[in-house]
Amino acid sequence: MDWNFRSAGEMAAALRVGEVSSVELTEAAIAGIERDEGVVNAICVPDFDRARVAARLADEVFERGEDRPLLGIPVTVKESYNMAGLPTTWGMPQYRDFVPAEDAVQVSRLKAAGAVVLGKTNVPLGLQDIQSFNDIYGTTNNPWDHARTAGGSSGGSAAALACGFGALSIGSDLAGSLRTPAHFCGVHAHKPTLGLAANRGMVPPSDPALPVDLDLAVVGPMARTAGDLTLLLDVMAGPDPMTSGVAYRVTLPPARHERLSDFRVLVLDEHPLIPTGAAVRAGVNRVADALADGGAHVERHSPLLPDLAESGTLYTQLLFSGSVARFPVEAYEQLRTRAAGLSADDRSLDAARLRGMVLTHRDWIAVNTRRELHRHGWRELFAEFDAVVCPITPTPAFPHDHNPDLLERRLDIDGVEYPYFDQLVWAGLPTMSGLPATAIPAGRSPEGLPVGVQLIGPMYEDRTTLRLAELLEPRIGGFQPPM
Asked: Which residues form the Amidase domain (predicted)?
């Protein structure tokens, strides 16, 4: 395997002993992008000139006998992060020319760790899709099947990793935006515990880059191996130095176990609000078999599991409650009228989306109170289990669907159509309660598409699912380059 597909850990080891230089790694990555980018369209904003300068500086640092966690390693950054000198548009044409003056805190941490940033990766309009396309940069294609999506909203980052365009990338996750692209493209991603990694500068171009606490969204690492996720999370984790970072530092607890045989795992493959497609169910079962073969204690049911149907409904309401803040008053009033016309017996996710969009503050507090009860339920479950294995979405990557009315789109699950956004309930399972979740490759569908699963763990015990992912990697195949 050429350097472009080596892990960041392997690159770091080779750099430290002089087997390869950062300039060589960077030039190889740039050559790969220039050769293969046209059919994938993952790198929407290249930054090759500055990358070459950074690589030369990294080699000079090595020559002085100094070291940093990511020194000399080529990486990419999701377009939605502010990066001084490059546009940040979130795919919105009106901000085509917006160039921030300062780096996002996570871009600063990448650079301080010595990483060489190759450029920025593509996103959907406003980051609000499970695909990555927009009128500025076009469509990112799945490296395994160009007629299918790479996922969203970190789809450009996942596709770039699958193609060898850098060893690491940073993305974000509100509705599976790290985990779904990883699942669709056959790479790894980690949604950290809510608030673990500072998000300042990962902000719409119309907003000031303030250190705000987000309700559901996180920033996190993407990589081709589980070990590389840990390497990058260690760089990203920590509070914003403008706020709680003045007083606090992060010390994550170690993984609960080091051996696979010591893990207690709950495996789920059914959700009451949406079916699980056969290909994804097979991926979950492959992981369950690997766990059992490794001596782990595996269960399929637990009375401690919080109610999945209520979880999906609460998550949907919380997610969509934040989606209408900038709507014109007239449009918001139309939504209120539609919501008032819903039957009290309508418990569909479509109804939950509409109700969520018009939640009053009083209503939101009631929903949040139910969320806190779910969080407590998860704490009780994780006293008996170390991790939960479940789908990320019900299907592998689906064909491109650019219908501008997202609520009219449909998802085909084994020949039956379902509302497009219903697929978010699996991704929302850890998101609603702020839990960490690690996306790992779990084989291929009969059509040869990647299939991933997520490992959900207890809050602030991110190293537990990351270690479990690392132990599972050799047993279920891990990353493989697109054929």
From this structure: 24-466
Q: How far is CA 413 from CA 149, 284, 383, 398, in A?
A: 16, 16, 34, 10
What would the two tokens of residue 395 be? 């299907």
pLDDT digits (tens, 9 = 90+) for 46-74: 999 999 999 999 999 999 999 999 999 99
- Domain of residue 84, residue span: 3-260
10 Å CB burial of residue 189 (0-12, 13-18, 19+) is: buried
- Structural tokens at position 477: 């195949």
The helix (H) or strand (E) run that includes residue 418 is strand 416-419
pLDDT in tens, 254-269: 999 999 999 999 999 9
Query: What element of type H or E holds 259?
Result: none
Q: What are phi and psi of 335, to 5 degrees?
A: -65, -40
CATH code where residue 86 lies: 3.90.1300.10
Number of domains in the chain: 1
**Both tokens assigned to 168:** 């690491």
Tell me what pLDDT residue 137 has: 98
Pairing of strands 416-419, 387-391: unpaired
Rg (CA), the chain: 21
Q: Rounded to whole angstroms, how far apart are CA atoms 212 and 433?
A: 18
The answer to the question of residue 212 being in a domain is: yes
What is the rounded distance in angstroms from the CA atom of residue 41 to the CA atom of residue 391?
Answer: 27
Q: CA 58 to CA 67: how far, in whole Å?
A: 9
pTM: 0.98
